[in-house]
Amino acid sequence: MTSSARTNGGVALVTGGSRGIGAATAVRLAREGHDVAVTYVNGKDAAAEVVGAVERLGRRAVALRADAADPREAAGAVGRAVDELGGLDVLVNNAGVGLLGPVESLTLDDVDRVLAVNVRAVFLACQAAASRMGQGGRIITVGTCMTQRVPGPGGTLYATSKAALIGLTKALARELGPRGITANIVHPGPIDTDMNPADGPYAPGQAEMTALGRFGTTTEVAATVAYLAGAEAAYVTGAEFAVDGGHAA
């Protein structure tokens, strides 16, 4: 599809779209007129709820089980989304794993899994999407505020994996720019999700690290993703967007 077609909607794939930021993004993109595919691993029921929310907005939706740790499934999800919905205009790389702990405690299995999900899967999805996107496609990756500021110990592996996505984003912007395909990365700060609730035991300390003194919401992150997916962001590429409440300020 062309960028002009995106003004009236297109097809989006949101990895890890069954909950949290991914689910909010899927629904927001549907409100903007996109048909949406979401991937999940264990959250089949939650993914079905997202599909229902998208369909109630009058758009088509499909949930695809795909384990980002499996390279075949990570790349294959793109082709499956195209087969189900007829094309691909927007790829949102949201699926990821967080693993925090002292650097000397991390095992080789820990390193392999985090890099497989947070880096390799994103690269393979982008690679697959690049061969299927037409003029004006959008690639948007979800990073983390910890690439901008690591406020304490324990984040070496996670920050390493997400920092790699900055380089990937900038390189994709250069390589795909002649085709009008943009690539950008969004860095959320502390966001209220079931994995990191705003009323959790570690929440007060996280909130204090932000300039606004609070957690963000999934809809606030989704709004930035939706902007980058839209026609108004056609001249925005290779950029980093902090949605972190001033965590890096």
Morphology: globular
Total domain modules: 1
Distance between the termini: 39 Å
Rounded mean pLDDT is: 94
Radius of gyration: 17 Å
Q: How would you write the strand order of the largest sheet?
A: 3-2-1-4-5-6-7
Which CATH class? Alpha Beta
Identify the CATH homologous superfamily: NAD(P)-binding Rossmann-like Domain
**Helix/strand order, N-terminal first:** HEHEHEHEHEHEHHE
Protein name: SDR family oxidoreductase
Domain Ketoreductase: 10-194
Keywords: Oxidoreductase
InterPro entries: KR_dom (IPR057326), NAD(P)-bd_dom_sf (IPR036291), SDR_fam (IPR002347)
Strand-helix topology:
Elements: H1 3-6, E1 11-14, H2 20-31, E2 35-40, H3 44-56, E3 61-65, H4 71-85, E4 90-93, H5 108-130, E5 138-142, H6 156-176, E6 182-188, H7 203-208, H8 218-229, E7 240-243
Parallel strand pairs: 1-2, 1-4, 2-3, 4-5, 5-6, 6-7
Outline of the structure:
The chain is of the alpha/beta class. It has helices at residues 3-6, 20-31, 44-56, 71-85, 108-130, 156-176, 203-208, 218-229, and strands at 11-14, 35-40, 61-65, 90-93, 138-142, 182-188, 240-243. The chain has one domain (3-243): Rossmann fold (3-Layer(aba) Sandwich).
